[in-house]
């Protein structure tokens, strides 16, 4: 599998299309008229490009927004900007031979920039039409905003009603991020956690329970709802841990801990998303985390859920193959599990009462 890579503007110049790259006018080669602010950083021709941001040099002071006003000479401002600008380039519609040539001198890329670029390329690729009137959209703000083509000064709108975005607050389309809650549930004594296995997951893979936020819902309410829907457990003591961007396509994983009563049987028949849900001891989880294959999520194994015999635990397995697997710490679910297992966080409280956060 190829690794993500960085290339310079010079190396991809043949893929970018004609100048100008941004602030394009009506015809090829035209620069947008400066008296039409709507066309600032607009792009109509060539493969989609998104400006991801400027990595400023260490110790450099950021320029105030007043320096970018209409009264300021753009060339003078550009000369004062210090740092490395990054862009994403969508080459999915370009010839493979041209792309291969550009990749010959690539440099290995860093994860955070790749994640941002991946999300922005996907967002621009999936949103092609105005949500108000259905007309095609075009890219502006260097890939961070989409606007209806009917709003362009040269558009012919004869015989059609004005797009609703033409008056009042323009209904521009902006990138979105969909929040997902990821929850590790413990008992009140803080010595067991509840993990589940999705029906679509390979092998004996178990993880924290998760689900999307619904409209009008708080993160805490989403935790309670998802845990009830997926495992039939009532939780309390919901506590935030951390977040992780997940650009597949544009999610934000929000990690939580919560408390439930392990004496109450779990249920996976409420929405049938999980194939299994089980409580595991700290000893069992540490045995998985210290197994070389314990967090190898790409490994294939038996498709049936892990079956724990009554009175036994996972550490009694004699094979080098782990009895089940969990996510690595590079995923927020794996970090939640690991932090709990190695007592980096404390979740349970035998004195907490149900219903209290």
From TrEMBL:
Cofactor field: Mg(2+); Zn(2+)
Nudix hydrolase domain segment(s): 175-303
Tagged with keyword NAD: yes
Keyword line: Hydrolase, Magnesium, Metal-binding, NAD
Disordered as annotated region, ranges: 294-325
Top-level EC class as recorded in UniProt: hydrolase
Chain intervals with Basic and acidic residues compositional bias: 301-310
Catalytic activity, EC: 3.6.1.22
Record field: catalytic activity: a 5'-end NAD(+)-phospho-ribonucleoside in mRNA + H2O = a 5'-end phospho-adenosine-phospho-ribonucleoside in mRNA + beta-nicotinamide D-ribonucleotide + 2 H(+)
Top-rank taxon, per record: Eukaryota
Similarity remark: Belongs to the Nudix hydrolase family. NudC subfamily.
PANTHER family named among the record's database cross-references: NAD-CAPPED RNA HYDROLASE NUDT12, NUDIX HYDROLASE, NUDC SUBFAMILY
Protein known as: NAD(+) diphosphatase
Source organism per UniProt: Somion occarium
């Amino acid at each position: 599998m190829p690794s993500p890579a960085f290339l310079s503007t010079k190396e991809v110049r043949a893929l970018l299309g004609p100048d100008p790259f941004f602030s394009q006018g009506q015809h090829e080669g035209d620069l947008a008229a400066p008296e039409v602010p709507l066309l600032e950083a607009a792009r109509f021709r060539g493969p989609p490009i998104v400006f991801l941001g400027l990595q400023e040099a260490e110790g450099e002071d950021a320029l105030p927004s007043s320096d970018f006003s209409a009264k300021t000479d753009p060339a003078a401002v550009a000369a004062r900007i210090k740092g490395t600008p990054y862009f994403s380039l969508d080459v999915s519609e370009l010839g493979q031979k041209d792309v291969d040539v550009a990749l010959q001198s690539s440099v290995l890329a860093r994860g955070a920039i790749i994640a941002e670029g991946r999300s922005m390329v996907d967002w621009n690729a999936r949103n092609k039409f105005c949500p108000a009137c259905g007309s095609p959209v075009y890219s502006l703000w260097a890939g961070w905003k989409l606007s209806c083509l009917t709003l362009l000064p040269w558009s012919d709108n004869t015989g059609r009603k004005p797009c609703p975005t033409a008056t009042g607050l323009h209904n521009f389309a902006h990138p979105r991020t969909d929040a997902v809650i990821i929850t590790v549930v413990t008992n009140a004594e803080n010595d067991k956690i509840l993990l589940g296995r999705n029906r679509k997951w390979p092998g004996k893979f178990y993880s924290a329970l998760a689900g999307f936020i619904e409209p009008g819902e708080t993160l805490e309410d989403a935790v309670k709802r998802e845990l009830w829907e997926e495992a039939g457990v009532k939780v309390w003591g919901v506590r935030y841990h951390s977040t992780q961007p997940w650009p597949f396509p544009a999610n934000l994983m929000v990690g939580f801990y919560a408390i439930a009563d392990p004496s109450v049987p779990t249920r996976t028949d409420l929405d049938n998303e999980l194939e299994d849900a089980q409580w595991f001891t700290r000893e069992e989880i540490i045995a998985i985390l210290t197994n070389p294959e314990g967090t190898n999520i790409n490994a294939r194994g038996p498709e049936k859920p892990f079956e724990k015999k009554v009175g036994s635990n996972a550490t009694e397995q004699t094979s080098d193959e782990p009895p089940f697997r969990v996510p690595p710490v590079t995923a927020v679910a794996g970090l939640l599990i690991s932090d709990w297992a190695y007592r980096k966080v404390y979740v349970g409280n035998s004195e907490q009462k149900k219903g209290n956060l």
